[in-house]
Amino acid sequence: MDSINNLSGGVTAASGFQAGVATAGIKNIQKKDIALIYSTVPAVAAGVFTTNTVKAAPLLVTMQRISKGKAQAIVVNSGNANACNGDQGISDAREMTAAAARALGIPEELVLVASTGVIGQKLPMDKVLPGVLEAAGAISPAGGAMAAEAIMTTDTFPKEAVCQIEINGKVVTIGGMAKGAGMMHPNMATMLCFITTDAAIDVADLARALKRAVEQSFNMVTVDHDTSTNDMLVALANGLAGNKKIVGESKAFQLFQDSLTDVCTSLAMDIARDGEGATKLIQVEVRNALSILDARRAARAVAGSNLVKAAVFGRDANWGRIICAAGYSGSNFDPNLVDIFLGDEQVASNGCSLNFSEERALEFLNSDTVRIILDFKMGEAGAVAWGCDLTYDYVRINAEYRS
Amino acid sequence: MDSINNLSGGVTAASGFQAGVATAGIKNIQKKDIALIYSTVPAVAAGVFTTNTVKAAPLLVTMQRISKGKAQAIVVNSGNANACNGDQGISDAREMTAAAARALGIPEELVLVASTGVIGQKLPMDKVLPGVLEAAGAISPAGGAMAAEAIMTTDTFPKEAVCQIEINGKVVTIGGMAKGAGMMHPNMATMLCFITTDAAIDVADLARALKRAVEQSFNMVTVDHDTSTNDMLVALANGLAGNKKIVGESKAFQLFQDSLTDVCTSLAMDIARDGEGATKLIQVEVRNALSILDARRAARAVAGSNLVKAAVFGRDANWGRIICAAGYSGSNFDPNLVDIFLGDEQVASNGCSLNFSEERALEFLNSDTVRIILDFKMGEAGAVAWGCDLTYDYVRINAEYRS
Predict the structure, then answer these.
(1) CA distance B15 to B174
(2) How far apart (Å, rounded) are the C-alpha atoms in residues B325 and B329?
(3) Nearest by CB to B306, which of A119, A225, A311?
């Protein structure tokens, strides 16, 4: 992540973006649980949403509004997913946006909404609505870090990333925040991610860049195999950087695309690192596959295998589970050609065991980031996926979550 | 499983079948680790094999031989999967069958072979070959129960089932044994299953019956999301019952089909119940789906969801995770119609929460078999899937397995 500068500010790093938070007491604990992101001018907006058939109410509201391509604010709550609440859920989600719109003095249609938390419980609107007003009263250009905290559920640390590029002599900033932790799987997990940029760009180009960025970042993260009802990634671009509009397949677009991918990748890796109960980040690289799809399938399957994840937790150089996971992934490869590495230590050659150094393999398994590399030696495509180890704490957290 | 009679004998229950075992010390522990199944006459043979691209050597040997439709013996070892061992693995697997064939005085081509255990380590042939000879010397019509023990790895109990039916006045017996425990997922898990029957039936009809039985039984079991390199289900039918040959879509075929499905279902449920670290069997029923495929997809996704499994372990009536898993399964249904029950307690109606009795839900969650029912209210198709809870012990077992 060399291109991620050491910048702070998250969703308020880019010009014209502000954020405010409130502690509404949604889950009966004293934790920031409402965040409001606001752009001083209307922004173009694009989003990516869960593929789950069961979609939470705020997604339905946001998907409908974002189809117009414009937004000026996003109101978010943690502690309750507002999913499986029927018509009441929809009207509650709308009421959240109406309250934010009134407080900010902008049209309701320009307010998007997101929720994360327990499924199947009604939103406590008597707490949520005052919280939204409080958050709106607290917005400031310095609010990004607090907003990143307010959207956390079982996350153990807030996730932010910022990147700056120069386009035609103007500095363009891309900032973002995310929450993850559990119920994470490719094709969007229980993940909320908000990206804000002051770039001038049309909505179609923003949407295209976002889709490509997500494919290489969030869709390559897996914590468990559960794809949530509430996943949402929304990007707002308000144009205040004053750059010449980024268009088509220009060099400027490529630069913007790369930086957006970097921001998303940084946030996605943070999500994997902070998977529920995780002690290690697992990074799986597939090299020399026949196609990107083959590489991605295999990388994701290895990163997502419960048996690989448990072996990493146990610091066991059990490479058989790695090739086995690649084998059931649907990826097209020849098992008799595969080389496997744990960090820099090669543990299998042409699909067979090597007499490798268990000691050196253990060194790599002991590091915070465990790198697993599969070389298919068939083509030129590659992919990287991220996951985390499977631990006693994952079980504990998820056996107790609702209680 | 009413139709499973209280019969014993497993793979040696049917006429003409014998089994022998040996303790070869493959994994350096004193446990039976070689099993040999033998039919006094050549039998027709059909099999179902892992869909994993990476197939262990014994599978490759067995798949090739079974394509001829005939077999007379099966030699099996536990403690080592003989997977990812290249050409050496193939020649070792063949040598196992050659040793068994010599000892039994039958053609090598009629001996099938299976292995289960750690991937990527060479078979210790100096221990395996004497073990095969010892097992061949020990075969007897009473050997079924010991064979079921010999194929266990992390299983905590042996799995056997026997069923008897009458066809044209002749008693036909179908017996079976299986091993499961970890690396279990639909489309065959790390599962070995051997079915023996004295029915007279052609190989094509046996294969057809077996395929249907597997779809409703083993392919509806999930312990984790890992599909192994070694899964194999082989059925031998030696004709010694003396029944009129079971053919086509006759009533006799239907009876045979149902009984075979019962034997497979009983073994599959035992595998789920004995999932690594499991304390509970989870049975998921989907009712009134648009198609069998929709019902199966949803049932399997719910039974396989880490979050549902952890919630069952924690005895948490977190039905949101149930509908969420159905939602990402690819099953076609309307979330706003779904009713959900835990045992007899309805917890959701039309996709929304009910004010259900947590106390009564807890009673059902406390039982050894936790029944989850989803009523889609859309069509007439149904399916049942089985899984187990996700526990601290699953993590412990799989973090330590190879060591």
Answers:
(1) 10
(2) 6
(3) A225
Mean pLDDT of A37-47: 98
Q: Does B403 lie at the interface with A, CB-CB under 8 angstroms?
A: yes
The tokens 């925040």 sit on which residue?
A177
At B66, which amino acid appears? I
CA distances from residue B52 to A323, B204, B227, B305 in whole angstroms, order as listed: 10, 24, 7, 21
Residue B10 pLDDT: 95
What residues of A are in contact with residue B54 (Cβ under 8 Å)?
323-324, 326-327, 335, 351
Contact yes or no for B352 and A314 at CB 8 A: no
Residue positions of B annotated with a catalytic role: 190
Cβ–Cβ < 8 Å for A287, A382: yes
* Euclidean distance between CA atoms B130 and B25, whole angstroms: 10
Give the residue among B158, B156, B198 at the shortest CA–CA distance from B178.
B158
Closest Cα in chain A, distance from residue B52 (Å): 4
* B356 vs A: CB within 8 A: no
Residue B122, Cβ density class (10 Å: 0-12 exposed, 13-18 middle, ≥19 buried): middle
Eight-class DSSP state of B168: T
DSSP H helix total and E strand total for chain A: 11, 14
Count of residues making up chain A: 403
Instruction: Give the closest residue to B204 by CA, choosing from B71, B111, B67, B74.
Output: B67
User: Any chain A CB within 8 A of the CB of B84?
Assistant: yes
Kindly name the residue from A12, A153, A154, A190 that is annotated as catalytic: A190
Torsion, CA A112, CA A117, CA A122, CA A124, rounded to 10: -80
For chain B, list residues with pLDDT below 70: 1-6, 181-190, 223-228, 397-398, 400-403
Length of chain B: 403
Burial of A362 (0-12, 13-18, 19+ CB in 10 A): middle
Please tell me the predicted confidence (pLDDT) of residue A278.
84
pLDDT tens digits, residue range A374-388?
Answer: 999 999 999 999 998
Tens of pLDDT, residue by residue over A82-128, are 988 999 999 999 999 999 999 999 999 999 999 998 888 899 999 99
Beta strands in A200-261 (DSSP E): 232-237
Active site residue A190: yes
Q: What share of chain A is helix, strand, coil (3-state, %, to 5)?
A: 35, 30, 35
Rounded Cα distance between A382 and B169, Å, is 63
Tell me the CA end-to-end span of chain A in Å, nearest whole number: 38
Distance from CA of B387 to the nearest CA of A (A): 15
Cα angle for residues A365, A283, A5 (degrees, 5° grid): 115
Query: pTM for the full model?
Result: 0.80
DSSP tag of B69: T
Contact A53 B326 (CB under 8 A): yes
For B178-218, how does the pLDDT look when each residue is reduced to its tens digit (9 = 90+)?
998 654 443 334 689 999 999 999 999 999 999 999 999 98
Report B:26-55 residues touching A (Cβ under 8 A): 51-55
How far does the CA of residue A400 sit from the closest CA of chain B (Å)?
Answer: 6
Query: Which residues pair with residue B341 across a beta bridge?
Result: B346, B373
Give yes or no for B6 touching A (CB within 8 A): no
| B201 shares contact with chain A (CB less than 8 Å) | no
A289 SS3 class: strand
Which B-chain residues 237-296 have CB contacts (< 8 A) with chain A?
Answer: none
- Pick B307's closest partner by Cβ from A55, A85, A183: A183
- Residue B187: φ, ψ to 5°: 65, 45
